[in-house]
Design goal:
about 325 residues, alpha/beta, Rossmann fold, 2 domains, seven-stranded mixed beta sheet, six-stranded parallel beta sheet, 10 helices, about 30% helix, globular, ADH-like_C, oxidoreductase activity, acting on NAD(P)H, NADPH binding, NADP
């Protein structure tokens, strides 16, 4: 086996999508507790765009190469590793980085056996999105059967995953926001949300208040941040929770934000990330995914929505497509 491999790099270390190119770099070596995986496909995420631009705080243990989710075949192990896996096993997994490459060295705590029912492309779109959605819904949001939930960026991969998880967990009502009628139709007709609202043409906060008879929602999962903060407080039910996963709308609050609902409705707002968590924490989330979601992938109750599959040599176009905000579901690159 060669001691080098091809991987996606960024000219100058950071820049626009056009700075991405296929480079040759040293092939990783699996350390104790790690497997060496030959990658078949990898998924794109918004954090990849931020990392490419030098705007994402990368964990110290992450390699320079972008990418956190992948599917592939195990080719070897670090010393003393491999109790639950064997060479030749088909797997998918979550990594701190390095997935835009031919090989990756990753902790076996972050690997899952790929079921035959999932394609390489579908499997590569599971780890980051479904684990993030599970974490937000159950661990942080403490979602319970019979509650209501609002997913912002409803046609994003995490929200698509979360909507399916909430339905399976017995949500009383599921609401979503999105930026086009096409996405609204997708959310209502294909995913079956209770109602979706176009944030470009509707006052989503007022519409949700109307739809809930003023009661509000028990849990909101938000990727937007500053510009949605007031609306999130307004639509929260008493003892409601807001889980903040992103800052697409900025990290600063607009003038005039009224935080009184935090007190009057006893709202809890909590931010969370996944990539900065330690391996044991991510391993526990992996186990939750395996026990609760994997059987539903196998019987096709849960679906991985793949918008487009592209050869990895078209990584520039793949990043540009993700930046366009026009997609519903995952963009997957194949090697």
């Amino acid at each position: 086996m060669s001691d080098t491999m091809r991987a996606i790099a960024v000219k100058g270390g950071k820049g626009p999508a056009t700075a991405l190119f296929v480079d040759t770099i040293p092939r990783p070596v699996a350390a104790p507790g790690q497997a060496l995986v030959k990658i078949r496909a990898f998924g794109l995420n918004r954090m990849d765009l931020l990392q490419r631009e030098g705007l994402y705080p990368v964990p110290p243990q992450a390699p320079e190469t972008i990418g956190v989710e992948f599917s592939g075949v195990i080719e070897g192990f670090g010393e003393g590793t491999g109790a639950d896996f064997r060479v030749g096993d088909e797997v998918f997994g979550l990594a701190y980085g390095g997935a835009y490459a031919e090989y990756i060295a990753v902790s076996t705590k972050m690997l899952v056996h790929k079921p035959a029912e999932l394609s390489w492309e579908e499997a590569a779109g599971v780890p980051e999105t479904w684990i993030t959605a599970s974490q937000a819904l159950f661990l942080i949001g403490e979602f319970q059967e019979g509650q209501s939930v609002l997913w912002h960026a409803g046609a994003s991969s995490v929200s698509i995953s979360g909507i399916q998880l909430a339905k399976a967990a017995g949500a009383k009502a599921i609401y979503a926001t999105a930026g086009s009628q096409e996405k609204i139709d997708f959310l209502e007709k294909e995913l079956g949300v209770t109602a979706a609202f176009n944030y470009r043409t509707q006052d989503w906060a007022k519409e949700i208040q109307k739809a809930t008879g003023g009661a509000g929602v028990n849990l909101t999962v938000d990727f937007v941040g500053g510009t949605y903060f007031q609306g999130n407080l307004d639509v929260a039910a008493r003892d409601g929770r807001v889980v903040l996963l992103g800052l697409m709308g900025g990290g600063k609050l607009p003038d005039g934000v009224n935080i009184a609902p935090l007190l009057m409705k006893r709202i809890r707002v909590e931010g969370s990330t996944l990539r900065s968590r330690d391996e044991d924490y991510q391993g526990r989330l992996r186990d939750t995914l395996v026990s609760h979601a994997l059987p539903k992938f196998q019987d096709r109750t849960f679906r991985v929505f793949v918008e487009k599959v592209m050869p990895w040599e078209q990584i520039v176009q793949a990043h540009q497509l993700l930046e366009s905000n026009s997609t519903k579901g995952k963009i997957i690159c194949v090697l």
